[in-house]
Structures are given as C-alpha cells and as structure tokens.
Specification:
six-stranded mixed β-sheet, globular, single chain
Length: 206
C-alpha cells in the first residue's frame, strides 16, 4: 500500500496501555490520518495469544483487530528472554507462573530462579515484534531488541513488567529508573515501531 493511501486511514492500536499508545502515536502518527486506542474505537475483543513466537502473536492480534474494526491495525507482542533460563520467560512473559499473578510476583520469580547466577551470566534481552495490517490485507512487520542483563533486585518506580530488574546494555540503571523518553529511545518496542515506520514509508510489505 502506498504511503499516501495510508495517510488517509485511521490506525487502530490494539492496546489500551497508555504508555504503549503514547509511543505508538509518537512514531506512527505522521503516517496516518489518526491513531486510536481500542477503547477510543469501541473495539473490545480478546485475542488468544497462543502462537509460539512474538511475531506470530503480533500478526494474529493485528489481523483480528483489523477484521473486527475495518481499520488498519497495529499490534505488538514483546517479552523478556533470559539466556541462563534458556530464553524464558519469552512469549510467556506476561503469563509466567500462570494466570493471576502481579508484575512484582513474576519479577521476584525470575530473581529467585537466578539467585545463584553470577553477574556475568545474567545476560538477557527484551524482544518486540510489531505488525501493521491494512484493510486490504497488506502487512508490515518488524522486530526490535534491546540487549542487557538482569539485576539482583528491583529498582525504580517507572515502567511495568520486568522493567525494575532489566538493565540495558551501556547503562547502570534499570528501565524503571529511566524517564519514558529515555526508555523509548532505546527500548525494544521503540526500535520495532521505528523500523515498522521505515518499512511503511518505503512500502516494504511482507
């Protein structure tokens, strides 16, 4: 789909997370007539994210939101992959330990699993797959990563999920100790969304 045609469309962000929406708008708003959250668009569907890859889940979510709304839709799936845990929690990051647990409980679960792992072997990365599906079926996708390590205790008050224990490469602060602007500049999701914007601008569909 040509960029000029995309600019005539409203983009539905398949999220009600305020932080995600701000980031999506900052990066993708120039390419569309408007960007709406699921709530703003009155689209309330629950997508079963049962794929075994981040990209698979993001594609499924974007396709279902596009189909339900008739709008262009953008979705992402992201998570934390820890080398010492063979890539866990990975696609199960939001459901690690099973359903019904808090971010703080899942974060402590990770720290407990890494209790005997020394600093040099606590390498990890956040991974994000971002996908746009157009009403005509055209699809754009991108993958963003942020390398880092897992700290020994939660720090900071900002962010969500595993942010309090993830220290990005080149930093001595956890994601949750950074401002939104600092985090977005280097985050996996920010990188994926910027790559997605570049592909959209160049017309590089899947």
């Amino acid at each position: 789909m040509e960029q000029s045609n995309a600019q005539k469309l409203t983009l539905l962000a398949a999220t009600n997370n305020a932080g995600k929406l701000v980031e999506i708008k900052e990066i993708l708003a120039p390419y569309f007539a408007d960007v709406l959250s699921a709530k703003q668009a009155n689209v309330f569907i629950d997508v079963d994210e049962d794929a075994d890859t981040f990209l698979g889940n993001a594609i499924k979510k974007a396709e279902e939101f596009c189909k339900a709304s008739g709008m262009a839709a953008v979705a992402d799936d992201s998570g934390l992959c820890i080398d010492a845990l063979n890539g866990e929690p990975g696609v199960y990051s939001a459901r690690y330990m099973g359903e019904g647990h808090t971010d703080a409980e899942r974060t402590q679960f990770v720290l407990d699993k890494l209790a005997d792992v020394p600093e040099g072997k606590r390498t990890a990365r956040f991974v994000s797959a971002a996908v746009i599906v157009m009403p005509d079926g055209t699809r754009y996708s991108a993958l963003g990563t942020c390398e880092g390590k897992i700290g020994f205790e939660p720090k900071g008050e900002n962010g969500f999920g595993y942010d309090p224990v993830f220290i990005p490469e080149g930093e001595d602060r956890a994601f949750s100790q950074m401002t939104d602007e600092e985090k977005n500049a280097i985050s996996h999701r920010g990188r994926a969304m910027r790559l997605l914007a570049e592909k959209l601008m160049r017309g590089e569909c899947d």
